[in-house]
Backbone:
């Protein structure tokens, strides 16, 4: 490490939470350390002075089944998630998303919680160019080179949601267990991310001192189908240009309980409401998919350089439904 | 060979007679050359025994880092260094005043200051700090506060040209504000005699060399002499650059670059870091290490500049090219430095037979890092335009794209009018095209590739070709020492930049002397231990150093044979040298007899056999290497994602000295070409002028997954008679046709020409969208 970080080892997660809350932004959790390394080396000087390693304080790296739930320690590596047969059996979109993360080196080093809370890949932000997310009061991407930015829900910032497992966890309706200075609470993962219109400076709602301890998933039953898919510029080691996590079931011959989220297109996991409403409760049938897919980019407000994402969104929506449709245990056509 | 060269000595023009080279017997290698010998340094490299410059750690070594400009164009108003004194391990600060008059020079003598207080691009070196550790040096850099006064800038080459801020981009220094013009024939006449004229503007992106080993130097000053370990393509050019910068004689500098982790044109001479390391090693009287980190590799040096090429080609109905007119713009940076490297016109002037050609090259003085040679400088960019244009013409005239290329092959070098190096008969490019077409089943695929309109995945095929001057030549020399135990030391100045130079040169020496490759130790790229060669660039290394090695080895062979004639009682021509022995064949009277080469070395008057060889001059012909590539792709027209189904690369580079390194050279070239074609795009923000992706997450090099699953690389093994080993270069040729072959295949799949690199999903979807509207 080239930057003079100070490492503080604390006795418990609770103590770590309190310490970080007290230091108000001057400290950070050390998990896999990938983001910290990136920021220390890049032009964006976001480096905290004090690092608090937490994977050694408490069991943070595990995958277990308890009370009918899959419980994943927040410090579990993406590689362990990708390799878990338990997760593959009852939460396979998460497996697929884990396999789509970075490179094998990154999957081995990165933690699930770190992946959920990674800062945007926006190249203005990452290069330390003044913006809402580093203390400034503009979003240079709004008028600059915004080829990788949001086509939905942007403004005032246009960075996009980039966590592959995060998208899958939204579709799986996962719950987060959060340790804070005053105790422990749970929240749905879908509530984790903040609308830039409410707070443009950050991407999630956790306050300093709030630590994700565990991620809980209700297993999918046989009735469900689902998938995670991702379009990227480079076939390996690349963030999503557009990604999708999709889960639904066959309820008496109908599309039911559809949960669909798009990544890479909006500041938060994005739900294509129009398309979703189009197909929800429709009788199972291949013919229902294209009309819904056509609506998948409804409401898109592309910037100067990213309209190309619109056909991608439609295609990916359609492909995700078509691929999963083939896996339904019963289908009329 | 030309019998003389004309040079100017002290203002006087004189003719120098070409030196006589001893004629060598025709080359008919059998033992070593032509065999897939494993790399001589493979084990050292994979076990970490090979010491690269970045690995060098000397006792008491200090570390240099640069303070770089955080502005695109500015004047430094003030520098606050007060905090430096509190940094443990801080040793020295170097500012521009201390470096007045010190600059790097390009091939045409244009200068780039070592340090400046008026930065003209983001990341330019302002100050250098030296500290006990690299970490302390980084802290020192962070502790310095620089205040700037911003000045206007532009990073857009076309804007610069419009504003008149450009120089000619050719190989001579023209007048400022004038493009470099090449002209032969009369293009107006050529277009008048054309049946059809095609016009299109092509754009290629900024690329970086992205060598695995960054630019690095470790300098040590002892006994009034510098020893510098440098990751370089040319130890002698580093030595000469340093001698000039330090104003000391060459004999006081030793440069070592035996192992180096990739250069691709970016490590041809001394860098700013080299000079600072050398300068500070004397000043501080301790070794100094200067290694750039990955992000710095995006600023210094500089990579392949982007190009905008407006191309106009006139053809007759039968496909004959009648006229070529091109206007090329590339970004060269605000110093003019390296302006010669971005010109794409050579491809247009030398590739096909055409009497009427006119090109104009504008090197725009953008506020970006200077341009630099990068694998197939000019040609990689030029081919993207020309080879797509030929494809477009072929389709418009309903001529097969392979046929139209064959139809326009030149019988003489279109630029110089010289004949091509022999053997006479078939043109190397024709051989590449024909062999590739056959392996690829081009005709069959052309008639069978059809697409179902209902599916978004469209299949297509494409071809592109290339030529590159790859004859090598003097200066190059080599020495070979045979020891009395039958081992030997081959000393050659050339760097092995990853191509296998050490291995193929050992093979040439083994072939000639009969020694085993394993018994030859290759010493290379060390100015104290080897004789002079040019840097390993321009595809010239093997064809330059190889003949010198054969000559050095032949000198040894003669000495061995002279002794062997007496010992084995047989005429030299009946003896064979192989496997470390000299063998007299058996006859009715006497059985075969072998004597170890070691024996002859001990018998020699000097107890060592020593040979030196100089590279002979080239014959007065054009010596080109050729390439053709064939691609089959699937393009999803709704996601813009390209999958490469099949790739065939064919290269004619004369004799194949080592089929294994030949193939890796092809695979490496295509892979690098696929990066250029598909994903690599260094982005400078128009608004802030700053680089947006100076890292490997956002500047996307190809990974192993980009490799075509069905990838065949083959050679046309056709020794040239232009030098005594029959080999030509294979450095640049494999990368040149890759991007246009892919673009042509994408056109075949989608019906849309994509004239802008990279061919990313965005690039493809945007082009499809434009075509629709």
Residues:
């Amino acid at each position: 490490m080239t930057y003079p970080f100070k490492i503080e080892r604390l006795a418990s997660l609770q103590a770590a939470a309190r310490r970080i809350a007290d230091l108000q932004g001057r400290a950070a959790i050390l998990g896999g350390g990938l983001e910290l390394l990136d920021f220390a080396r890049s032009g964006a000087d976001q480096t905290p002075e004090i690092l608090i390693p937490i994977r050694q304080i408490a069991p943070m790296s595990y995958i277990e089944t308890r009370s009918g739930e899959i419980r994943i320690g927040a410090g579990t590596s993406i590689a362990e998630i990708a390799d878990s047969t338990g997760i593959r059996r009852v939460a396979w979109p998460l497996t697929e998303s884990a396999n789509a993360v970075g490179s094998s080196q990154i999957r081995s080093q990165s933690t699930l919680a770190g992946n959920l809370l990674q800062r945007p890949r926006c190249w203005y932000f990452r290069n330390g160019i003044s913006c809402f997310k580093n203390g400034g009061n503009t979003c240079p991407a709004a008028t600059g080179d915004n080829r990788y930015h949001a086509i939905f829900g942007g403004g005032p910032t246009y960075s996009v949601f980039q966590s592959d497992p995060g998208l899958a966890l939204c579709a799986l309706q996962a719950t987060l267990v959060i340790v804070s200075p005053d105790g422990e609470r749970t929240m749905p993962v879908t509530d984790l991310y903040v609308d830039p219109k409410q707070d443009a400076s950050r991407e999630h709602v956790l306050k300093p001192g709030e630590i994700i301890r565990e991620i809980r998933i209700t297993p999918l039953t046989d009735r469900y189908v689902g998938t995670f898919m991702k379009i990227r510029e480079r076939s390996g080691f690349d963030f999503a240009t557009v990604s999708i996590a999709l889960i639904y079931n066959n309820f008496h011959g109908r599309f039911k309980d559809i949960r669909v989220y798009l990544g890479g297109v909006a500041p938060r996991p994005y739900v294509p409401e129009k398309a979703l409403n189009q197909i929800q409760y429709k009788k199972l049938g291949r013919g229902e998919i294209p009309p819904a897919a056509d609506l998948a980019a409804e409401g898109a407000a592309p910037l100067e350089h990213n309209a190309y994402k619109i056909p991608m969104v439609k295609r990916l929506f359609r492909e995700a439904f078509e691929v999963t449709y083939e896996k339904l245990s019963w289908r009329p056509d | 060979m030309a019998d003389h060269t004309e040079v100017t000595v002290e203002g006087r023009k004189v003719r120098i007679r070409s030196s006589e080279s001893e004629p060598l017997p025709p080359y008919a290698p059998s033992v070593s050359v032509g065999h897939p010998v494993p790399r001589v340094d493979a084990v050292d490299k994979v076990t970490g025994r090979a010491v690269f410059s970045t690995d060098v750690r000397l006792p008491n070594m200090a570390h240099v880092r640069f303070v770089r400009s955080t502005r695109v164009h500015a004047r430094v108003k003030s520098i606050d260094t007060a905090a430096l004194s509190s940094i443990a391990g801080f040793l020295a600060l170097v500012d521009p005043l201390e470096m007045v008059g010190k600059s790097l020079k390009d091939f045409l003598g244009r200068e780039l200051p070592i340090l400046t207080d008026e930065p003209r691009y983001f990341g330019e070196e302002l100050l250098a700090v030296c500290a006990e550790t690299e970490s302390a040096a980084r802290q020192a850099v962070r502790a310095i506060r620089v205040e700037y006064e911003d000045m206007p800038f532009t990073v857009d080459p076309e804007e610069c040209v419009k504003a008149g801020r450009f120089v000619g981009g050719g190989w001579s220094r023209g007048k400022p504000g004038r493009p470099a013009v090449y002209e032969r024939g009369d293009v107006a006449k050529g277009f008048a005699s054309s049946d059809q004229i095609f016009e299109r503007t092509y754009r290629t992106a900024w690329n970086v060399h992205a060598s695995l080993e960054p630019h690095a130097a470790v300098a040590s000053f002892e006994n009034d002499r510098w020893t510098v370990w440098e990751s370089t393509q040319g130890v002698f050019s580093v030595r000469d650059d340093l001698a000039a910068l330090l104003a000391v004689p060459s004999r006081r500098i030793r440069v070592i670059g035996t192992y180096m982790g990739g250069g691709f044109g970016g490590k041809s001479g001394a860098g700013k870091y080299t000079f600072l390391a050398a300068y500070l090693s004397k000043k501080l009287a301790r070794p100094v290490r200067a290694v750039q980190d990955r992000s710095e590799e995006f600023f210094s040096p500089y990579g392949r500049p982007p190009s905008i090429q407006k191309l106009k080609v006139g053809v007759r109905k039968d496909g004959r090219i009648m006229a070529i007119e091109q206007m090329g713009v590339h970004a060269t940076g605000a110093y003019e430095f390296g302006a010669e490297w971005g010109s794409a016109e050579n491809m247009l002037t030398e590739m096909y037979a055409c009497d009427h050609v006119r090109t104009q090259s504008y090197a725009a003085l953008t506020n970006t890092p200077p341009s630099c040679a990068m694998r197939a400088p000019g040609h990689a960019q030029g081919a993207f335009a020309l080879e797509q244009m030929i494809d477009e013409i072929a389709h418009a005239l309903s001529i097969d794209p392979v046929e139209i290329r064959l139809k326009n092959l030149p019988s003489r070098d279109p630029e110089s009018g010289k004949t091509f190096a022999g053997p006479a008969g078939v043109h190397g490019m024709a051989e590449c095209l024909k062999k590739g077409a056959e392996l690829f089943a081009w005709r069959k695929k052309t008639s069978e590739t059809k697409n179902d309109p209902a599916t978004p995945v469209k299949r297509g095929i494409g071809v592109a070709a290339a030529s590159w001057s790859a004859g090598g030549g003097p200066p190059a020399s080599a020495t070979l020492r045979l020891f009395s135990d039958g081992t030997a030391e081959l000393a050659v100045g050339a760097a092995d930049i990853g191509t296998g130079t050490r291995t193929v040169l050992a093979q040439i020496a083994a072939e000639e002397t009969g020694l085993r490759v394993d018994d030859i130790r290759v010493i290379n790229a060390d100015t104290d231990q080897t004789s002079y060669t040019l840097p390993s660039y321009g595809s010239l290394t093997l064809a330059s150093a190889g003949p010198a090695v054969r000559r050095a080895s032949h000198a040894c062979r003669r000495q061995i044979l002279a002794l062997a004639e007496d010992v084995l009682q047989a005429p030299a021509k009946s003896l064979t040298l192989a496997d470390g022995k000299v063998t007299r064949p058996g006859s009715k009277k006497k059985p075969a007899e072998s004597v170890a080469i070691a024996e002859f070395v001990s018998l020699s008057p000097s107890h060592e056999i020593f040979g030196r060889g100089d590279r002979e001059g080239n014959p007065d012909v054009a010596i080109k290497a050729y390439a053709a590539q064939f691609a089959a792709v699937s393009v999803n027209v709704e996601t813009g994602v390209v999958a490469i189904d099949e790739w065939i690369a064919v290269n004619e580079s004369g004799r194949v000295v080592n089929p294994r390194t030949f193939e890796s050279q092809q695979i490496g070239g295509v892979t690098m070409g696929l990066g250029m074609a598909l994903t690599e795009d260094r982005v400078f923000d128009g608004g802030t002028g700053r680089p947006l992706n100076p890292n490997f997450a956002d500047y996307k090099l190809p990974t192993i997954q980009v490799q075509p699953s069905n990838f065949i690389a083959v050679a046309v093994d056709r020794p040239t008679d232009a030098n005594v080993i029959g080999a030509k270069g294979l450095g640049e040729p494999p990368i040149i046709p890759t991007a246009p072959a892919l673009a042509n295949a994408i056109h075949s799949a989608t019906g849309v020409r994509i004239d802008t690199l990279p061919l990313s999903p965005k690039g493809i979807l945007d082009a499809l969208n434009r075509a629709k509207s």
Remarks:
- The mean pLDDT of chain B is 95.
- The two ends of chain B are 58 Å apart (CA to CA).
